[in-house]
Design brief:
With about 140 residues, the protein is of the alpha/beta class. The chain has helices at about 20-35, 85-90, 110-120; strands at about 50, 60-65, 70-75, 75, 100-105, 125-130, 130-135. It starts with 17 loop residues before the first helix and ends in a 5-residue tail after the last strand.
């Protein structure tokens, strides 16, 4: 009986997934760690609640009225005397832009009406009042 000693040059057809698994795991850990450090910047306002609230993705001018009397227009603190001037600068397309009023629950209605009146004075005609949706109690 003759034994064949010829070398066989077969290629290995098995793929090792261990290195691919390591890379996927490292990417997963990376994205989990970096996503937890994203901080939403803004002005802290306690919004009133409404049963039926909706969101809008239109061009917005956001006016924040804080309980201590400070007013922010698109994130910039605005003195009471300069509200009209600042609104003229940010409301460039009155027919298309929406003025969103986000005020604390405890802000006096008089202050909110004054700000809305100033916005109407520069041509704004579309207003939203920002609220949060009420949580259902069982």
């Amino acid at each position: 009986m003759k034994i064949s000693l010829t070398p066989r040059n077969k290629t290995l057809t098995v793929f090792s997934y261990s290195s691919l698994t390591d890379i996927v795991l490292l990417l997963l850990v990376f994205f989990l760690l970096t996503s937890s450090f994203i901080v939403t910047e803004g002005i802290k306002v306690i919004l009133p609640e409404a049963e039926y609230s909706q969101t809008s993705e239109e061009k917005q001018v956001v006016i924040n009225l804080l309980e201590d009397g400070r007013i922010y227009i698109n994130g910039e603190e605005t003195p009471y005397e300069e509200i009209e001037t600042r609104l003229q600068a940010v409301i460039t397309e009155p027919e298309e832009q929406v003025v969103v009023l986000a005020s604390d629950k405890t802000v006096a209605l008089e202050q909110a009406v004054y700000v809305i009146d100033q916005a109407k004075g520069v041509g704004a005609s579309r207003f939203f009042i920002s609220t949060t949706q009420k949580e259902e109690t069982e």
